[in-house]
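Deliverable D4.2, example record:
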Amino acid sequence: DRDTDKKRIEELLEENMVLEIAQKQSMNESAHLGWELEQLSKSTDLADSEKSFVFELNECASSRILKLEKDNQSLQNTIQELRDASLTSRESSLKFVELEKENQQLSKKIEKLQNQIEKEKQSNQDLETLSEELIKDKEQLQVVMETLKADKDRQV
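Output generated by the structure prediction step:
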């Protein structure tokens, strides 16, 4: 029984180490994604170090999404202004062509921003799910470890 308990403890320790390594890799990937988000949005540092990992990801993604939505709205306003301006400036067909090109470029930017928002939302959801799974696995391992320790103490 002791040998099987020892083997089981060793297996659980190995499994725990594998999960910790996976969690560290996940955290490294998440940190890298957070850095990329920060670079894209040029947002301020998230100074509150006591926030949970999931909350930090949500906050960063949310601020990025808000910024992208503001940019999107600004671009849509610009497009509307360009459309209005194109209606009032029919005197010069050259200017009208230039405005249409700019309008198309802004439309492409809007589409890119919307795609980027969707990708970031999905990435955030994936990271949150992974984080929750890792936390659950850790809690389960702690329960198993406590049970094994209690069995070991009882046997002793």
